[in-house]
Write a structure and sequence with these properties.
It contains 19 helices and 21 strands. With about 550 residues, it is α/β, with parallel strands linked by helices. An eight-stranded mixed barrel has the order 13-14-16-17-18-19-20-21, surrounded by six helices. Strands 2-1-5-4-3 form a five-stranded antiparallel beta sheet, with helices on both faces. A five-stranded mixed beta sheet has the order 7-8-6-11-12, with helices on both faces. It binds ligand C2E and magnesium ion (MG) (2 copies).
Length: about 550
């Protein structure tokens, strides 16, 4: 029996009738930190006397009293061992009489793991693992508590990080987690006034709860939050992600008592305001009001209309000529989408292009445009006009598995040379610097399709894109051309871009030329190709064809 006791995991000890140690097993020695040889003959409790608090001494007294009176005692408690470590344990004592001699047998079970598990489970249920912030459940209950007995105004804020998915694919899962942790740390360090709860609902989804005399007092705190996002986060990762990342945010706000009296109502109104911001390009704050409700139902209608437009082919290309600045000869056209809306008439991209991205319809748009453009090219070819057409694409479209096959299939089907098709990618869409995009662009380039970097100078990392992707053309954004004849800075920037392109063997197209003076200045600077209202606005296919007929007649 003594041997069995030595092997058992629970700590066992035997005391005499005066509660002095007679014997302890190995587990007891381990747990308490004293050897049996030291303990034998000493009174219970001796081992940790110097660590015992007043409360613990009371417990010890209670144990002694109970044993004397009832012969049995059981208790869950935390105690300190010889090394000052706290052990959560369960202790049972039993009084046993053998041959009229009284023994007290004690069993001590280390419950630390169980208690730790319980604490961990509670933590898991209530806190976000990554950030340690309270989760949605806790937020809801804290918000209800605040609303129940507040005499003040309560502001509920919903916050998302813009282009989160792009950032996640750029940084990878570890990188995005680090970014989120850095983001949370920064918000905490702002020590926002009146903040009662800062919660992480998961992903890029956060909520904040403020309580103060006047909800408007929170406006200033939210401005501080937006300003925080102007400073980039430095990410140290592999070469592709070694970068300064800007985390712009979209924020939706609702407040009690004006917008709603219930937490769920307030949350959903803040959510609607948030969605409104996101649909309008993000990077902004919006306080809930009635007009958002109307806009939301409008956006649902827009989504339904867009799906119908995709299915019924309502997207049509308009063609804007690109020309040689010195002779005015048309070198090709840029296809710009127009939506022939059944009730609202002809719509420009600014009315729907963001919604196309939001509702993941960009590939449908691209394939519809590419089909119509391929038809047009082959029609012009039959009329003897050898032209190229540029099609605009968002980098998101490249990740579509059928993208490459669709483009190469169209070229074969319509008997078009690959170099007659140019694809323009905007800088801003390239923030999703996925390997996929690079691969797709390289394959297109190998096929012979020409590639242009659109809106050059307006994105995050213009120069690095030139290095990373195989572009043939740079399109200088119209914002650099608008005052080129009067503004020295614009002039210097465009000159620098022209020199850079020259050094990299790339062609340049200046966008948005509206006056003859702008054309003249650009020509003087050595820019050869341009596009803009001065030479020609985007026009339907038949008008573009007439332009070509005229040009070829005079040649
Ligand atoms: P972008 O590709 O940079 O196209 C040039 C935009 O500038 C066009 O606007 C064009 O009409 C306008 N523009 C051209 N010349 C001038 C000028 O002299 N002055 C001024 N102020 N504007 C000029 P649009 O057609 O409204 O297109 C806007 C943007 O929508 C395009 O910018 C492009 O990024 C996007 N987009 C157009 N079509 C498509 C498409 O089929 N797919 C995708 N993904 N995006 C498209
Ligand atoms: Mg373009
Ligand atoms: Mg452009």
């Amino acid at each position: 029996m003594a041997q069995l006791c030595e092997q058992i995991e629970d700590a066992i000890f035997v005391l005499d009738s005066n509660l002095r140690y007679l014997s302890v097993n190995a587990s007891y020695e381990l747990m308490i930190g004293y050897k049996e040889s030291f303990l034998v003959g000493r009174p219970l409790g001796i081992y940790a006397a110097e660590f015992l608090s007043e409360e613990e001494q009371l417990i010890l007294k209670e144990i002694k009293d109970n044993l004397r009176e009832s012969g049995f005692y059981k208790l869950d408690f935390s105690m300190a061992n010889r090394y000052g470590e706290t052990i959560d344990c369960q202790i049972t004592y039993r009084k046993i009489c053998i041959d009229q001699t009284v023994f007290h047998v004690g069993m001590l079970r280390d419950m630390s793991a169980v208690v730790k598990d319980q604490k961990q489970v509670a933590h898991l249920l209530n806190y976000d693992q990554l950030t340690g912030l309270p989760n949605r459940k806790v937020f809801l209950s804290q918000a209800s508590d605040v609303l129940l007995d507040t005499y003040q105004e309560v502001v509920i804020v919903r916050l998302n990080i813009d282009r989160y998915r792009n950032l996640a694919s750029l940084l990878g899962s570890e990188g995005i987690n680090t970014l989120i942790q850095k983001f949370v740390k920064r918000i905490k360090e702002l020590h926002l006034e009146h903040l009662r709860c800062f919660s992480h609902f998961g992903g890029d989804d956060f909520a904040l709860l403020f309580e103060c005399q006047d909800g408007n007092m929170v406006r200033h705190q939210l401005d501080t939050l937006m300003q925080m996002c102007e400073i980039p986060f430095t990410m140290n990762g592999n070469a592709a992600t070694n970068a300064n990342i800007y985390c712009h945010i979209s924020v939706g706000v609702s407040y009690f008592p004006k917008n709603d009296a219930q937490v769920t109502g307030l949350l959903s109104k803040a959510e609607k305001a948030l969605q409104y911001v996101k649909q309008h390009g993000g990077d902004d704050i919006r306080w809930y009001d009635k007009t958002i409700e109307e806009a939301t139902s409008g956006s649902l209608q827009l989504e339904a209309d867009l799906r119908a437009a995709s299915a019924e082919g309502q997207f049509i290309p308009y063609y804007q000529p690109k020309f040689l600045l010195d002779t005015g000869i048309i070198t090709g056209f840029e296809a710009l989408v127009r939506w022939q809306h059944p009730t609202r008439g002809l719509l420009k991209p600014k009315h729907f292009i963001d919604a196309i991205l939001t509702h993941k319809l960009s590939f449908e748009l691209f394939s519809q445009m590419a089909n119509k453009i391929a038809h047009q090219l082959s029609e012009w070819q039959q009329q003897g006009f050898c032209q190229h057409i540029c099609i605009n694409a968002d980098a998101a479209e490249f990740s579509h598995p059928e993208f490459f096959d669709m483009v190469s299939g169209l070229l074969v089907q319509h008997n078009i040379a690959a170099c007659q098709l140019h694809i323009e990618v905007t800088e801003s869409s390239l923030i999703q610097r996925h390997d996929d995009v690079r691969k797709q662009l390289n394959s297109l380039k190998e096929l012979g399709v020409r590639l242009a970097l659109d809106d050059f100078g307006t994105g995050y990392a213009s120069l690095s894109y030139l290095q990373d992707y195989p572009f043939d053309f740079i399109k200088i954004d119209k914002s650099f051309i608008s005052k080129i004849d009067t503004d020295r800075t614009q002039h210097a920037i465009v000159k620098a871009i022209l020199d850079l392109a020259d050094a990299l063997d790339m062609h340049v197209v200046a966008e948005g030329i509206e006056t003859e003076q702008q054309r003249d200045v650009l020509l003087d600077m050595g820019c050869k190709n341009g596009q803009g209202y001065w030479f020609g606005k985007p026009v339907p296919a038949d008008v573009a064809t007439e332009m070509l007929v005229k040009q070829y007649a005079t040649e």
